[in-house]
Amino acid sequence: MKLVIAEKPSLGRSVADVIGIIKTHKDKGYIECKDGYCVTWVFGHIIEQVKPEFYNAKWKLFNWDNHPIYPDEWKYQTKPDTIAQFNNIKALVDKTDVIIHCGDPDREGQLLIDELLILWGVTKPIKRLLILDPKPAAIRKALDNMEDNKKYYSWYQAGLLRTQADWLIGFNATPAFTMLGNKIGIQGVVSSGRVQTPTLKLIYDR
Predict the structure, then answer these.
(1) What pLDDT, on a 0 to 100 scale, did the predictor assign at position 193?
(2) Low-confidence ranges of the chain (pLDDT < 50)
(3) pLDDT given at position 2
(4) pLDDT, position 67
(5) Are the CB atoms for 49 and 167 separated by under 8 Å?
(6) Which residues contact 31 (CB under 8 A, 6 or more apart)?
(7) Whole-number Å distance between alpha carbons of 7 and 200
(8) Which is it for strands 30-33 and 76-78: parallel, antiparallel or unpaired?
(9) Is the pTM of this model over 0.85?
(10) How far apart are the C-alpha atoms of 172 and 180, rounded to whole Å?
(11) DSSP secondary structure code for residue 46 in this structure
(12) What pLDDT was estimated at residue 143?
């Protein structure tokens, strides 16, 4: 079996249409296709980094003695609303001979599927299906020109470091600014983040 893992259901359906659909298995989250193909999909990130208190109960508290916090080993959990599809994909991965990575052609698309395969310790052959145009002819051309997924490992690394930076900034800077704010009478949480803080600064400057 050749298993295509798409970034989203709509992309999975487009790929399945080009390959040729035999049967849709809605209850098991995949489409059976011609020539030994099966197509499944994720819904964005179906696993997520755990919160600080998972590593150390003390890290849940805003306290200067806790900072900075930095996990020795990054840990993940399945999102509650994606557990069923997580299990569906894992069952298909266990049965397949070849995996075809069909995330979007960017660092986030690479991360979405690589993070699952790495979590599961998959050692089976993995091909990269890069779809730059959703039209059937372009999908067929991409299917005929797949490459080894290892070629795009740097995309995965870039996406991974972005998520880790988000975690470190959010869970270190937010408590720090909140505690500083409390000292001068600001009540509540003073949120900080890699994207939201510079964006807020742009609005403030204008």
Answers:
(1) 87
(2) none
(3) 97
(4) 87
(5) yes
(6) 12, 13, 16, 21, 23, 24, 25, 38, 39, 40
(7) 30
(8) unpaired
(9) yes
(10) 13
(11) S
(12) 97
Long-range contacts of 85-89 (CB under 8 A, 24+ apart): 85/29, 85/40, 85/41, 85/42, 85/43, 85/46, 86/46, 86/47, 86/116, 88/28, 88/29, 88/30, 88/40, 89/5, 89/29, 89/40, 89/42, 89/46, 89/116
Residue 65: per-residue pLDDT:
87
Joined together, the tokens standing for residue 24 give 């849709």
Q: Say if residue 71 is preceded by a cis peptide, omega within 30 of 0.
A: no
Residue 6, judged by CB atoms within 10 A of its CB (0-12, 13-18, 19+), counts as: buried
Q: pLDDT tens digit string along 108-137?
A: 999 999 999 999 999 999 999 999 998 999
Q: How many residues can be counted in the chain?
A: 206
Strands 30-33 and 37-41: antiparallel
- Reduce the DSSP state of residue 32 to 3 states and report it: strand
Name the residue type at position 51: K
